[in-house]
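Hi R.,

Here's the chain you asked about this morning:
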Amino acid sequence: MSVNLKIQQVVNARIPTPEGNFQLCLYTNSLDDKEHMALMMGDVASQEDVLVRVHSECFTGDVLGSLRCDCGEQLALARKFIADAGQGIVIYMRQEGRGIGLQDKLHAYNLQDDGLDTVEANLALGHQADARDYTIAAAILKDLGVDSIQLLTNNPAKIEEMTRLGVKVNGRVEMLSTVNPENERYLQTKVQRMNHMLDLPLERAMVVNGNNGAGD
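And here is the predicted structure, written out as tokens:
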């Protein structure tokens, strides 16, 4: 973790949801000008195996309900898992489009509609396949006093990076995704090119291999 990083929880407020009452904590930091957040339920300080979802902002999926990705579905599922457990945290990172920003994410959508997959589109725009950084997420967990976590993810790189940043990851909780004609190639790209631990239905996988569908 960067020795120069400074974070500050500037405000928190109760957020009642259909799943129950959460506390939304807003953080400022010294690395970027973005306001990252922790949506928290229950007492997590000095707790082991806290359910944690490190979720990167996806305006199209989280807000608009886009079918091109599974982001909104994963965010809702994480809240449900946490509510069922009565304890947990969603860290909401403001790094849209795997870190490339909304403008280039929309450009990437157009490239995907022309036949590129999500990795190829990001590279064509001069970005990394995945430009996200989890330094601030690790710092937020430290600030909240969490001792160890169960990470809600299908992404092994996220587990490795959080561990490298000093977070004790004791396990992983699988995040199932609903496959539809708009996101099937996106999900298959996650599995084939980014090593995500996601079991896709065989019949869908066969379709995707010959499909130039969209993804985000």
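One quick note: The longest strand covers residues 7-17.

Cheers,
M.
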